[in-house]
Amino acid sequence: MEKTVLIPTDFSIASLNIVKNYLNEQPSHVRLNIILLHGLHQTDSITSLLFYSKTRLLQELVSKEFNEGCDVLKNKYASKIRSMRKDVFSGFTQAAFNNYVEANRVDEACVPILYNPQFNNKSSFDLMPYIKASSLRVECVGSGIDLPIPEKGKVAELFFNRVQVS
Amino acid sequence: MGKSGCIKTGWSMKMKIQIKTTLILLTAFLSIIILFSGFVYLSVSNYSYEDFYKLLEIRAVTAAKVELDKEGSSQELIALRNEFFEKLPQEKDHYFRIYPGYSFKKESEALRLPISFFNEVIQDGKSEYNKNRMFYKGIRYKSKQGEYIVVASAENYFEIHHSAYLRRTLFLAIAAAFLFSALIALYFSRFVFKPLRKITDSVKEISSENLHLRLDNNMNNDELTDLIRTFNNMLDRIETSFETQNNFISNASHELRTPLTAIIGEADVSLSKIRTIDEYIETIKVILDEAETLDRKTKALLFLAQTGFNGKNQKFDQLRIDQLLWDVKETIEKINTESLIHIDMSLLPENPLKLKVKGNEQLLHLALSNIISNACKYSNNSIVNVSIGASDQNVFVIVKDHGIGIPVNELKYIYDPFFRASNTLKYEGYGIGLPLTRNIIRLHNGEILVSSIVGQGTTVQINLPVGQTD
Hints:
CATH superfamily of chain A: HUPs
Oligomer: heterodimer
Number of strands of chain A: 6
Strand order of the largest sheet of chain B: 6-8-9-11-10
Number of strands of chain B: 11
Number of domains of chain A: 1
CATH topology of the largest domain in chain B: Beta-Lactamase
Order of helices and strands of chain A: EHEHHHEHEEHEH
């Protein structure tokens, strides 16, 4: 079984924990295409559009730690993940979001229970309202408590923040 | 003496770069100008040649009309010709009647023209030829008496006057442009290298005596600002390492003196009067104890010094980090039976080849056991989580404890030998372990990151580059 899942991200290691928790819950026969989506308002000036490159844009947004964290997850769940990519959504309307979902054949979205994204870029925006208003099936993962941990922002954060199953 | 020599070579190097820039700029300018003027010269002279041939053709036609046709209107034509047609230098006209089958060999020899010239005239109606400065234009003219070849010839006045003038003008222009561009290039290179000279001057003022000095940063966000910033960062690091060095010496002498003082004190006290055998045994035991401590400290120091060198005498093999971790866990549990180490494999990559690193097993074993036993020690043997993961470039080993933590403002000193955080007083240790571990990780081109919150715990992240899988 193959499916595409959309996960909103602020390109922090904490948001990768959502990916990890989600992957943990999936049965072993699923093959996943993961889209890590970031909401970003982009400039509409002609000159910037002339030299627009998504690769470069992502390079600026994504930290080295985040990429390493993605690699760790890809290596861990090598047989579950078919693809994992980072993308930027810059539409303004719900219709644009629905279009994006349809074009990328997204089957479901996965959001953290405790969601407070920390954006480094001031033109970033929260994707949550779009996800909630769309017809996507939404899965909630993660824990409801946020403890201060020493390894914030390092790859190490990915390793221990497991869901406390009670 | 050596210092002045050094400055001198630096100066000549800089001059060299400056001159080089000037020369490069100058060559670029000059080649453009020369290309430009060459093009102008060639196209102008080409145009004037064509123009001159056209002139000759008109002359030839007029002359033929006047000399061969001798019509009624020829009187006016003659008058017109005399009045307006300026005589060209060495202008001559020749007329040859065309007979079928005649080869014009004699004529071509007489005028020193190639026979092909005449053939071309007969065939195409016109032909051009030039030799030295003489220009020849031949046309085929149909008069009342029959067909003629008319050859008009003259010396090209352009070649004599205009061309020389053009050449002179161009040469003058090139010379002027050269001078001008030399000035520009010189000014430009001066202008570009001025900030560099300024940096050199201010760096010269910084020595080991006044390491606190920094280069001032004028806020133009350009490459030189980057250079200044990098330089300042380097100075920061140098200053810290100088401080570390100073601290190290005082710390080391203090650490070595403590057991020595104890030995001397103990010996002094026991020698002050005659003691019983039991007391002597007690004293010697204390002395032995202290001497052993001293020995351990010197050994640790020696090891630290050895790992601080480039790892040329260490043997590096492929080894799997998870196996190593199990070994480390076993060793620590043997030494400290109360320790609780939990190795977490939840992010272990599916492909075990990704866990291979290139390293020296003994050294890595030492480094990891240092970190993990520290974690056990400073968390009073509560559970220590050790987990492994791998990206495509790095293998991560993460050791997390729930111990006393390290105060934030002391985090930057933890790699100083003999440094111990302020909250570690009731724990035993000399402060050699972490610097040693860092040296070992550095030998493996890895990275060690320590983050901590006081009272909550410490997380140590070790990144080791993945070894080649071949």
